Amino acid sequence: MGKIWPINKTLKILSVTIAGKGGDSKSAVEIRTTVVAPDKETAFGLGRRKIGDAINFLHIASEGEIKISPLTDARVREIGSKIKTGFATATSRAYIEAPPEPLNEKMFSTLSKAGQEINSLGKEEIGSLITGLRWWEKGVREENAIDRFLAYWIALEVLVEGQGDALVKKVTNQLISITPKVVRMTLKKKIGQIYGVRGKIVHYGVMEPEKLAENTELLKKVLESLIRHKMGLTSYTVQKIFR
Questions:
Q1: Is the pTM of this model over 0.85?
Q2: Which residues are paired to 68 by β-bridges?
Q3: Which end of the chain is more exposed for a tag (fewer CB within 10 A), N or C?
Q4: Domains, the chain, ordered by start
Q5: Backbone phi, then psi, for 220, in 5-degree steps?
């Protein structure tokens, strides 16, 4: 089998470059980004954060098919400039955990499209998308069921920019616009159901709400569908969201 990430394939997302590497490993990639910082330590932190954001987008764009392990060989170097900007480049090597087969042209086309769409967004829209993705990632990694649900809910509030009944209405309208086959009342009921779980947790301190796992998974799918739409990608089907 050849390289999982072909050497001649490069993606650019949010000023982060992801490229296949040579050598013996079939899954090694190099992830590079440039930041402006006064010292190596600060550059390292900023660089890792930017790279982390790009990896989150990659995960969503590939519907979970591509996962990249934590950065194991991160380093910082100074780049030359006539203007003294300090240490600026964070370069890291990481390893792809999935998929088991080489990426095909269709997958690269999808990822490239997502990268171009993200790069074309305005500063505020990119900011809310990145913040939403960070809360989404927190939810994915969270082991506590209540905290996982709340992380996804915060991500939804950031992404849609709303609260309470207004948020339920906005999410419903947005999902209907991108998944037209869904019945409005069914969708509104489902979103309201998720909002009800949030209320029990936040306002009444209920630690084991009824059907928490089911509603958490539904919330995650709704959130990922809206994120994919903002990335210019096909949203999840109604069947995938509500199955």
A1: no
A2: 96
A3: N
A4: 10-119 (3.30.1360), 121-242 (no CATH)
A5: -60, -45
